[in-house]
Amino acid sequence: MVAQHPAGLVRVVMVFLTELLVSVSPAAAFEWIRLPDPAPYPFLGPLLFVVCVVGFTYLAVERWRRQHLRRKQAPGKQKEMYSVYDPLTGLPTRRLFLSLLGRALTRAERTGRTVAVLIVQLEHFTVVAESQGRAGSDMVIRVQAARLKSALRSTDTIARLMPDQFGVVLENLVSADEILPLARRMQEIVGLPLTLEGHELLLSCRMGVALYPNNATDRDRLIDVALRALSIAKAQEQSIHFSLSEVEPASASTPVSLSAVDGR
Predict the structure, then answer these.
(1) Are 212 and 222 within 8 A, CB to CB?
(2) Which helix (H) or strand (E) holds 195?
(3) N or C: which end of the chain has fewer CB within 10 A?
(4) How far from 91 is each of 50, 81, 146, 231, CA to CA, in Å?
């Protein structure tokens, strides 16, 4: 059939090439359409066949190149996502936490409100990890991360800073008294029983708290104060510890336990 109607085949091929040119260059397609009837030109058949083969080959190679480029770029995008979000819990990492804290401090500077930074440390997590293995410890972290997040307000921020350590930003606070109910709620929900492979686990956490602008006015200093308060809480076996002193050099800061503030 093709051998009997070469002119018809040429016309079909020319229509295809015209459509292809329209998608690439309308001006080139216009010039192509102005070509004379291909019937008197028998050599156009083989020539157009070669052009079609080359065109299809080019399109196939170009499609493969784009797919290969997307696959090559995908790990980079995934790595970038993991650099700001923890793949286990879905929470922000330390990198994103610092950025979000900086924004919170900028808003607080405009509104004059208080911002609190809490460093939450899970107690005895190393023992749990050793007894339950990697899968079990990952499950514990996911559950406790979800619990801590559920105890916070929609305006608060929580991030995973270390394997067993979380950072929390409480912003838009009118006074430091608002921290106590939120801190207690987080401790209560972390202390709820957790059943893992038939074993009931009871965990707890300690917290170190720093306030803006009472303790510091920049994010790095606030985190340092909160970490130091956490260390004091561990040393003195307190569940929560923070400083209410005015901004002072690191060597002169004197943290005050929440238990003392609460009259216990």
Answers:
(1) yes
(2) strand 194-196
(3) N
(4) 57, 11, 9, 24
Rounded to 10 degrees, the C-alpha dihedral 179/184/186/190 comes to 160
Q: Are 228 and 208 in contact (CB under 8 A)?
A: yes
In SS3 terms, 152-187 reads as CCCCCEEEEEECCEEEEEEEEECCHHHHHHHHHHHH
Given 3-state DSSP classes, what are the helix, strand and coil percentages for the chain, each rounded to the nearest 5? 60, 15, 25
- Could you tell me which of 96, 112, 115 has the C-alpha nearest to residue 104? 115
Are 204 and 189 in contact by the 8 Å Cβ rule? The answer is: no
The answer to pTM > 0.70 is no
Sign of CA dihedral 190, 87, 172, 211: positive
**Per-residue b or e along 186-198, where b marks 16 or more CB atoms closer than 10 Å to that residue's CB:** bbebbeeebebee
CA distance 83 to 88: 12
